Amino acid sequence: MGRIAATLAVIALLFSVGSAWADDNSEANELFVGAVKLVKSADEIEDDPIEKAAVLEEALGKLNEIIDNYPSSDLAVKLISGQSVGNITFEGIRDAAIRVRRKADARPIFEMTLKLAEQGLAGAQFNVGEIYYKGYDVPRSYTEAVKWWRKAAEQGHAGGKTSLGLMYWKGLGVPQDIAETLKLYREAAEQGHAGAKTGLGEIYFFGFHGVPEDIAEGLKLWREAAEQGHVDAQLWLGTIYQVGTKVPKNKAEAIRWYRKAAEQGHYYAKERLKKLEAK
């Protein structure tokens, strides 16, 4: 808000003193003042991405009009060259308009998913939980994420059970409860969920939160998940065999699992694989 007010003040001053810049470029200046006011208006819109996108696009339209219709004006030159005019740049407004438009376009998808979730579709309930957990196009809310993942879990959705188990593990949106995490992870793992197997494998392998250590069970779960393509399980196996954590060092096994994770695009797996193969 401060930068917008400062920009308006600069423009007002230019008009009030009758500067040559203002006189010689009056049409462009008026368009720019209009764009700045629209940006200020957009800054005040918080809960309606569709309206905000429309206002920013209108502001961008005015900047484009300056460039297209008054290319020799001082403002057009500054906008084209990427210079800041009272802390406003063409690229900044353009990028903001694109970002908010993407958010606005995603809104109907969320509303449709939410409607399906409210109708009881477990997959949609899981997706709504994911949206709230990550804050995609809605304010992040762990409480809402837990609510929707619980609904999905109660219908037997393995992903819902796994995600809800993670929330109990971390104490996000619910009080921490490791026993509940174990229960949910075990149920989802029995359904074949690779993420649940990976999480359960961590608990058993390291003996987290007082759970008795069971290296063999942890390895078994990680291997199952890794064979299913779960990149975190692949990374865990690569790491413990590289470092020799509770298992003998095994360069070949480390390379094998790092390569599988790297093939899925995992950055750290790629870096570790490169270093191991160079030795």
TrEMBL record:
Arranged from A to Z, the UniProt key words for this protein are: Signal
Leader sequence segment: 1-22
The family database entries (SUPFAM superfamilies) matched by this protein are listed as:
HCP-like
* Species whose genome carries this gene: uncultured Alphaproteobacteria bacterium
Q: From the Swiss-Prot or TrEMBL record, give the protein name.
A: Sel1 domain protein repeat-containing protein
Q: Which Pfam families match?
A: Sel1
Instruction: List, alphabetically, the InterPro entries matched.
Output: Sel1-like, Sel1_AlgK, TPR-like_helical_dom_sf
Source organism's superkingdom? Answer: Bacteria
